[in-house]
Specification:
By secondary structure, the chain is an alpha+beta fold. The chain has one domain. Helices cover 32% and strands 13% of the residues. The protein is built from nine helices and ten strands. A four-stranded antiparallel sheet has the order 1-2-8-3, with helices on both faces. Strands 4-5 form a two-stranded antiparallel sheet. A hairpin with a 5-residue loop joins strand 6 (183-184) and strand 7 (190-191). Helix 4 (102-109) runs antiparallel to helix 5. The longest helix is centred in the middle third of the chain and has 27 residues, at 117-143. The protein starts with 9 loop residues before the first helix and ends in a 43-residue tail after the last helix. The model is unreliable at 293-301 (pLDDT under 50).
Length: 301
């Protein structure tokens, strides 16, 4: 059953407006080495109850190593604030999704073997901006008298090498799913109303905010491959053959990015530890929206 909508509080509106203003006005959200165009378009923002049962489910779905919001928050209280007693108050997870700008997506649609220059620069300038935005949100919450922390910027945050590929102990996409912002796709992408070409961030706070309804039946509801078998465009877009009807092969994907696509870093203007790719997120029906479930929508031109 879909969650029932709850009225948006003035605090929630304040946080949303603050995030959108920072994205719109920050000079960090610019591809300064190309043309100064935006890295990300207007964000999507959602809220989740910090004690939503989903967060305990993630320990089974992802791994016991995955932190719950309460575990992350209490670690922050203990290690950063010197508060050793357990925290019994309510918590909120604020999740914000940053859609890649239209001009960058268009540039990546034309590629078939590796990322466009704009996409590559978005990967390596976009992450520092996302981290700055997250710090800004934490700062704003603290100015409002609340305690807040970004788990992916805490010492507890780790990326683990597992037999089936890399996995972190704080999944931003799973936070976004809990906050009603979208569901997962065949390629392991995250499909939102703004599409799948994006970056996810989150903050945990003791500011109580109304949870955003999850307007979907399950974690795969926005992907037409799973709802009616009508898509699979990301399979053809992947130059490594890392996507199939069985899902996303993280090992093969990583080998492509760090191996085959290493040559992209020799091109003028390309930066970073790897080129970026992102082909499965562009020129596919879910690039900019949630595809119609009964219609095999054409790829963007």
């Amino acid at each position: 059953m879909k969650d029932q909508a709850k009225p948006k509080s003035s605090s929630a509106q304040f946080i949303e407006d603050n995030i959108k203003t920072f994205v719109r006005e920050s000079p960090l959200n610019r591809l300064k080495e190309i043309d100064g165009g935006p890295i990300y378009d207007e964000p999507l923002i959602g809220f989740a109850d910090g004690d939503d049962p989903l967060f305990q489910d993630y320990k089974r779905i992802i791994g016991e190593f995955h932190f719950t919001p309460r575990e992350a928050f209490e670690t922050h209280l203990r290690d950063d604030l010197g508060i050793s007693s357990s925290f019994n108050g309510a918590l909120t997870v604020i999740s914000f999704v940053l859609p890649v700008s239209r001009i960058t997506r268009m540039s990546n649609r034309r590629e078939t073997k590796g990322p466009s220059l704009r996409w590559n620069n978005t990967r390596w300038y976009g992450q520092p901006f996302a981290e700055a935005l997250t710090r800004h949100v934490v700062s704003v919450l603290r100015e409002q008298g609340s305690r807040a922390v970004a788990p992916d910027q805490m010492p507890l945050y780790k990326v683990l090498d597992l037999p089936n590929g890399r996995c972190s102990n704080w999944s931003q996409r799973h936070m976004a799913y809990a906050a009603g912002l979208g569901t997962f796709g065949l390629s392991d992408s995250f499909i939102t109303p703004a599409g799948t070409a994006l970056w996810c961030c989150s903050v945990v706070t003791d500011m109580v905010l109304p949870a955003t309804p999850r307007g979907y039946a399950n974690h795969l509801a926005n992907c037409p491959f799973f709802t009616d078998g009508s898509c699979g465009a990301c399979i053809q877009r992947c130059p490594a053959g890392a996507i199939s009807a069985q899902g996303h092969d993280k090992i093969k994907c990583r080998e492509e990015m760090y191996g085959v696509q290493k040559a992209w870093l020799e091109k003028p203007g390309y930066i970073g530890n790897y080129a970026g790719c992102g082909l499965c997120q562009t020129k596919v029906p879910c690039e900019t929206r949630i595809p119609g479930r009964a219609l095999n929508a054409p790829s963007p031109k």
